Amino acid sequence: MVTMASRAIGGATGFPLGAATRAATGAATCAAQRDDPLDWLRLIRSRRVGAVTFHRLLAEQGSARAALAALPEIARVAGVDGYEPCPPGVAQAEMRAGRASGAVLLLWGGPGYPADLMGLADAPPVLWARGDTALLQRPMVAMVGARNASSLGLRMARRLAEGLGQAGQVVVSGLALGIDAAAHEAALETGTVAVMAGGVDVIYP
Questions:
Q1: For the segment 42-52, what is each residue's pLDDT rounded down to a tens digit?
Q2: Pairing of strands 170-173, 140-142
Q3: pLDDT in tens, 50-65
Q4: Residue 46 forms beta bridges with which residues?
Q5: What's the predicted TM-score (pTM) here?
Q6: What is the DSSP string of 62-101?
Q7: Which domains occur in the chain, in start order?
Q8: DSSP secondary-structure letter at 117?
């Protein structure tokens, strides 16, 4: 089993950044392989930088470090004075906490990052993952449902998840009570992924 979460705290409102597009996937893959992961974490944790803004900054600036350096001027042009990116100490503390919990940091376009997420316009730039991360490279199917599920619904979820696992699919769900839990339990032997809403170190609900 693997659990993963982005723990993204960037705001929904980004900066106007021009016409850069996701056509820069190849360049971003190179950036993920050569950049310091701390710079990626600092960038996505910076105020007013969400996933879409992160990807546009990376495409325009070529690296997370260059994007961090450019952010104050980009913010000034957008009418935000005195802007400062996420301090290194904040990102370093998260890195220590992640490692202490047994998690690894996966960068968008880098080794281990789920290929199926790569094409999304708002793909999480970073993911914390715990467990057998090799599962993230296998075919996946999501199963979600009611927390207050009926006994029939739970039986059906277990049977479906077990069958999907035996057919080679990794079952993905949210680790909630009810249908989610039944799907995870039935797929434990064949592979299951839990996507955590509150962080990879916060078991919720």
A1: 999 999 999 99
A2: parallel
A3: 999 999 999 999 999 9
A4: none
A5: 0.84
A6: SSHHHHHHHHHHHHHHTT-TT--PPPHHHHHHHHHHHHHT
A7: 8-126 (3.40.50.450), 138-195 (no CATH)
A8: G
